[in-house]
Structures
1.
Amino acid sequence: MSVVTYNKITPDMDVVETLANHAIQTAEKFGLSNDSEPDADNTQIGSFGYAGGSLFADKAGKPSVKPSGPAPSL
Amino acid sequence: MTNLIEILRKLLYKLGIGSPPYDGPVSMPAQVPERTQPRSGKIDREVVFAVKDGYMVLMVDHQFDGVPSWIEWDNSRKTVSFTQMGGDMDEMNADIKDEFIDALMDTKKVLLVSNDNAKKIVHFVPFIPRK
């Protein structure tokens, strides 16, 4: 099942897919399921190595916004 | 000569007109950290909301100073606040598509992926939506 993002600005979907997969694997390895409830006093469930890119193309973390409307004619 | 000065110092101290003689290294008072108020900051980054296999996963390109304790999403302000243990709070941006707002209003818990030096760290955190 592919990942769906809710943001108006589209991030790098390969990065999102990778991070989501790792997060879910981490959660299930910790013993969580969709029915589990979080403990606000003990929220950390694990970590994983990651050497991929950032969520948005801009390394500073600001999303790049594509202009809407037709492309200008040259 | 040094001994003579020490003798004179002790003599003056006994007469009540001098400072106490030096008896070894002076111990410095321990540095007491200042008690600080919880910090609140705005970080100009977008929080990614992603759904997969029934899990809501939030992702940020940011390393928190503290351990995230709960997350609030305020749709009217288009912000997400991450309250950490100790009271610090970081606020980030989130502009959500209209068709997903109702789904987010029903969300009560999320997996949060954030930076931890060269790794990614995962937290399972209560989520509070506000329209």
2.
Amino acid sequence: MSKKSRSKLWFLVHSWLALPIWFFVLIVCVTGTLAVVSQEIVWLANPQMRASPPSDDAPLLSYDQILAAMKKAEPHTLVQAISRPDESHFALDVDVSYPDGRSLTVYVNPYSGVIQGVAPQFNFKAFTRALHGWWLVPFTNGYSWGWYLVSFLGLPLLVSLITGLVVYKKFWKGFLRPTLRIRHGARIFWGDFHRLSGIWSIWFIAVISITGTWFLIQALLFDNQVSISSAPIIPSMAREAVPLSPDGTPPAQIDIDRAIEIALQKIPGLEASFISLPGNAYSHMDVGGRGWYPLMFQTATINPYNGEVAATRLISDRSALEFVTESMRPLHTGDFGGLWIKLIWFFFGLVLSMMVLSGLLIWTKRTALATANALKRSKKKEHSASAQPSRETSEASL
Amino acid sequence: MSKSTTAPQPSRLSVLWHKWRFHLNILLLLIPLGFMPKYFSEAALFRGDTGLGEREIGEIQVGPWSLRLAELRDEGPRADGPAGYLKSFNAALCDACIEPVKATYLRIGKPRSLRAAGVIFFGTPYRMGASVPVPEKTKTDAELWITMEGWDGSMHQASIPLSQASPATIAWLNKHGGKP
């Protein structure tokens, strides 16, 4: 194959990757972009989710003080888990169970322990993530086919990055001489835009496409019962390990703050950002938080009656493979380092969405041109050739 | 594009493809629209906004205690990989048993001892869930056994016919059952 026809082939592959499902790809990009900042959008819309300190130097309450304040306000509400979001302007998310059988999340002020409100029935964060992640197709047996549908897009995205860089000859020069010609018509503008935003988001497209492809692999592994996990399965407590009480009342459990102290002894430097309380009399409580490597959580599983540590899961416990695979999700979502990383992910998410759109605009403009030329040619031949449906016309018929 | 020059005689299928391929977008966008009501009803179900489960079985007396039992979904057991088929139930304890009851278990068929009482409920006394394995060879006249264990070491049991606990499971067994 000649060099020219080979580059033409690369170009064709690049042009055809997002087509004909471009609008689907665009919506997946847009919903993903929204999902990155979904928590912040809810924060903006819902004042109950904000953690306003009563005064500038107000200290944060300990988890036990939070529980005590909640118990005082709502004696019958049972707390199942507490989590402290990464960004300090968010209230605590506390999973509670109400006597009427509802189980939901309430927002609790970390300075006062006041229950500021119940998470709204429409969970925007969960909805955008479900829409982006599995196209709302329910999980019934293993991964939903919507998950496969969306995660499969990682592959064409990766190929379009590679072919794009091959087609854009000496793309590194674009970094030195950025061009965005505004006054030369739409076709030139969108072409420049596509190339310029493309080279500046090489890293982002690589991250999103590789992690997206990992989601596909993850589903394939799971649905074929292949496990790469080195995490031990923690058995529930033995019958003998749970004390009986002759008077028939539940035995005392250790405080959360005590559990955190115990966890800290095993995991130095742990910043406990979530606590899940035992799910029944024979289950443990979990204390966890980020460690030195912000993409992963470390957890300690603790016997709530005697404070014994049943298991810990540290960053160093992960196998080399898990170190890579467990980093995939946070790299995809950008939720591992606070607001600024989210905003970077959001910005490049917008750029990627615009890349899909500009790619399509270029494609239609170029194809429209090609079609016009083809029509001119066919007019000349009109009398000789019989009317065979031209493919190029149908390509333009968007 | 130049691709067209390689196919001089487009087949019927490729003509159809070229005519309709961009409509794939519309089909793909209809998918989440179609699943949206299901998504929101599931979200409400898991929040407990629509009750204990899709189908309430009723209050069941277990010795001195009682609980309200419901099917999480009004349907047959769901496949769960190598675990086989699981049927999920939700329960809520009576007000007086919240403190004295240590654990609640579910099993199809009478448990031989407390150690084999079946699957344990997870959650809070207001709303807890358990997924019972349903072997495909389960007889349609089988019973669902509830075992409740007290903090004082006492144990109480009760059973209800599976046909009362989950008619959908019986229908499923009639369709799938009998296989080894």
